[in-house]
Amino acid sequence: MARIAHRPVIAGARRAPRRFRGHRQQHGHGRARLFGVVAIVAIGLIGYALAPAGRAEPGKEVAAQVIYTAPTSNDARVVLPDGIKDVLRDLGRRHEKIALTRVEATGTVDTSIVDLTPRIGDEPSSPVIKVEKRAAEAVHTKIDQIETAINTRSAQTGGRSLYVGLLKTHFAGAEPTYIVSGGLDLTDPADFRKLAFDVPASQVAIQVTASGEVPELANSPVTFVLVPPAGDQEQLRRPQRDYVKAVWSALLTAGGASSVSFIDAPGAPAAATIAAPAVPLPDLPGTPLIPRTTLGQTTCELSTSTYFAPDTPVLVDRAATIADLRDCAAKAGPGTTVALDAWTAYYGPLDAAGQPASNPHANISLSEARNKTIADLLVRIGIGRAAITRMTGHGSADQPDPRDPGSARNRVVRITITTTKQSGGNRS
Length: 428
Hints:
CATH 3.30.1330.60; 2 domains; seven-stranded mixed sheet; five-stranded mixed sheet; 10 helices; elongated; disordered N terminus
């Protein structure tokens, strides 16, 4: 068995062949020697030589691929779910191999081939164990070794670049792919600090597709095993978990996955020592909005990241939102009008002036829908429907903070209450 430097030894593991080394490779142009061979045959050979390595017979080398991110102290220790262990046990019974790919914090990848065949010794030529009970025990040991390998070496630096790693990974044709990660990437284009649980997942997928930077999943069904946060990373609430799933589902589908499903891994204390930056979570509703009044106008702003479920007009906490709006609504009386403006942050290419190069229809629709949600609440707490004279969903146009299209200040619904002064005079 070939030992892999600085990593736990897995029985049956060996260095990946050239096709699985984790970076896109292409064969050089072959020098076609014409010994009376028909020209079209030579052209065909050259075309074959230019095909990316590993694409000629996808799926022949391995039966599945397991990809994991290098652990940090903000990731719980990985405990493979029973469903994944069952899959690996079945592959062991069938004497199959898997590709085990580690994605470093910087996005570099390292792949080894693990033979799950139960053997008497560690060498690939060792006899296969025939006794069923002993064979099952041998496969169980290999699975434990895989789990240990995933957890043993901390990330080299405090980061997480799963998407970049997927771009550098060769996939085994349409064979199943299992991704084991917390999912909170810290590198563009999936930096969740910038996405802030608010940028529509569809918009993220559109941007990476337009750039051509998508993984080549080759119609593989993907199962994403979500590792719980640990250390300084706050536990995700349900809306944030759903958003992480939506983003990765959109990105993996854009890369050609035939299906994307998610499994929550069991939680365990972190095993790694290298810390990664924490991804801030939106605040919870529960603080009255502070009205600001100038020149007869009162404005209140709601952070959409705080009050709405990611990428939806659905309120995180309807009752808390109503309570938070009361101080603002109290400023509206007879002779006032109310206007609603909603914006979204922008995630995409900028024009020469540093402004959004487009205003996606999804952003406009989301802004309009969030305006309607807040308008309905204002009516519920006493503002007449007729007093709401305008609702504008701006999307990512004319943002409140034009200096930074992705700023949290652009993730808002603004309520403007205008007092109409009543003119009067002395009657004689």
